Amino acid sequence: MENYTTNKSVLSWIEDKVALVKPDNIVWIDGTNEQIEALRAEGCSTGEMIKLNQELLPDCYLHRTAVNDVARVEARTFICTKTKAEAGPTNNWMEPGAAYEMLYDIARDSYKGRTMYVIPYSMGPVGSKFSKIGIELTDSIYVVLNMAIMTRTGLDVLKALGDSDDWVRGLHCKCQIDPEKRYICQFPQDNTIISVNSGYGGNVLLGKKCFALRIASYQGWKEGWQAEHMLILGLKKPDGQIRYICAAFPSACGKTNLAMLIPPEGYKKNGYEVWTVGDDISWIRKGPDGRLYAINPENGFFGVAPGTNEKSNPNALKSTMKGAIFTNVARNLDTNTVWWEGLDKNPPVNAEEWTGIKCNGVEWKAEGKNLAHPNSRFTAPAKNCPCLSSEFENPQGVPISAFVFGGRRAKLAPLVYQSRDWNHGVFVGATMASETTAAAAGAVGVVRRDPMAMLPFCGYHMADYWQHWIDIGKTLDPDKAPKIFNVNWFRKDDEGNFMWPGFGDNLRVLEWIIKRCEGKVDAQETAIGYIPYAKDINREGIEDEVSLESLDSILDVDKALWKDEAAGIEEFFKKFGDKLPAELKESLATLKANLG
Ligand code: GTP
Ligand code: SPV
Ligand code: MN
User: Taking a C-beta distance cutoff of 8 angstroms, is the pair 386, 357 a contact?
Assistant: First the structure.
């Protein structure tokens, strides 16, 4: 071990964990292609990975998780702060001492007969002062191969760490993939994550949700910055200027799609372009010029497969064509390629559905069954993305003009509105609600409050997190503070059809948002904030799809429905008691007064 680092905190922590889990071998992930290639081959030899058609999908692999292990498990995710009060009313909490004891009992001896992989990784460009380092121990080749896509991985990370003790400890043990003993535990006060009995994405790729959101949100609170569940996109306008937008939508609510959107024809002609900086996580801090800057700490995309196609998101699709890993999608046995719902209209006849059952895909679909799991995913290197921003590696990040919140709501929430000011914007984010999706285990389609899309990811008390937002606003010159908006692409008519075309056409809304930031368009002040005049949302090219009447109706503020909403918000806020920031209380009072 001494060959790779002399860092005592690293070596002693690993020694302890080796004594606990007792691996047969220890392998350090060095960041070389040779090692990755060898691990792919080993993964294929055991059936853990399936090599796909190397002509059509070079360096691409398929992986199937256990059928009971296909999504994040929020009910089994814990924030282990010293006191329950620090974790707050929206997190599951366990006392750290008791949690370590329980987890160590589960993990003990669990690597016997297995190899321990030591993955040094950097969230953010290696060596940037805004980046943070972690080490994940895992007994899963799938985890190693995914982390090598999603993060900057290898021995140069250890060099950048030097003798520092400032790194996040991560222990992952597959154990028996027993759902009854599955725990995803964060110890924000110890910079530690322990995940046992899962082999699925967000539960086990510890750099992602566990570190870059749960631990990092806590670090940001203590250190004066923010970790958010936000995409980052650059919108290039016809005048050549690029404006950056961060948007927070809950899981499977459209971040990847918005981050990579292709402008509608008319916009393309006029010179609009969209560049992707990130599709899931933003780390945000104030720059020397007083503006907020965001970096994407990740190095790849762990994106939702179903619904991704040549029309909805060609950039994501292209990103998956080389060096990608597909999880829980279907396989076309004739071509040895992959398929999922919404890829095209031709399910493979000679197919394996996502668990590996051989079937006739056409008949299978006719029976109303899915070939791919609804939360099947691709892991794709960022560098594959045709619209990757030239600022992707910029260690300072990009300056943010607007924050956009949004969710999936069939009713109520209008297509877009703007908050009156920063604190009202924090209220808009704090009171977001959205229909649940397949990204987490449990019921789908149930409306729940998901503040800032961080409900499953905030590593401390949600009211402290809101206060942190408000405090950051206080340090910003109002001219430089990003403007705050809310969007909803998911309004449905009474027949259950989406009323807004979405995807590339969402640029029409982004255009209005940027014009508002630049003071170039008026808006109508309503009870909930500023709403566009329908004439100011460009319908050129979608006049048939979205009538003016229909646009009017998705821009409408229905006071009766909003009164119910205000009552729901009041109920939700009660959870936070005295800790609810006064500014949010005031915004609620204003909303109620405005609604009359
Ligand atoms: P996570 O990776 O779970 O955080 O999700 P995400 O927010 O990146 O979601 P993603 O962009 O992958 O979208 C998830 C689902 O929403 C896909 O099935 C998309 O097809 C669908 N979707 C995305 N954008 C739109 C849109 O503008 N309109 C409609 N109707 N559906 C959309
Ligand atoms: C999400 O659920 O928000 C994801 C996927 O981005 S996972 O990494 O599984 O959490
Ligand atoms: Mn996400």
Answer: no
- Residues ≥6 apart with Cβ < 8 Å to 595: 527, 559, 562, 563, 566
Determine the distance separating the centroid of ligand 3 and the alpha carbon of 250, expressed in angstroms: 7
Q: Which atom of ligand 1 is nearest to the CA of 312?
A: 20
State the virtual CA torsion across 27, 30, 33, 39 in degrees, nearest 10: 20
The Cα 312–Cα 273 span in angstroms is 16
* Ligand 1 centroid, distance to 443 Cα (angstroms): 18
Short-list 213, 234, 55, CA closest to 134: 213
HEC string for 199-221: CCHHHHCCHHHHHHHHHHHHHHH
Please check whether residue 418 is in contact with residue 517, taking contact to mean a CB–CB distance below 8 angstroms. Answer: no
Mutate to test the pocket of ligand 1, among 257, 260, 280, 328 (most ligand atoms within 8 A of CB): 257
Helix (H) or strand (E) holding 142: helix 141-150
Q: Which residue do the tokens 């905030």 mark?
A: 458
Place of tokens 């006064």: 582
R_g (Cα) of the chain, nearest Å? 24
- Give the global pTM: 0.98
Q: How do residues 517-543 score in pLDDT, each as one tens digit? A: 999 999 999 999 999 999 999 999 999
Look at residue 129 in the predicted model and tell me its pLDDT: 86
Q: Is 576 exposed, middle or buried (0-12, 13-18, 19+ CB in 10 A)?
A: buried
Summarised one tens digit per residue, pLDDT across range 113-127 is 999 999 999 999 998
Closest CA to ligand 1's atom 32: 254
Q: Would the pLDDT of 323 be above 70?
A: yes
> Is the four-CA dihedral 296, 52, 440, 194 of positive or negative sign?
negative
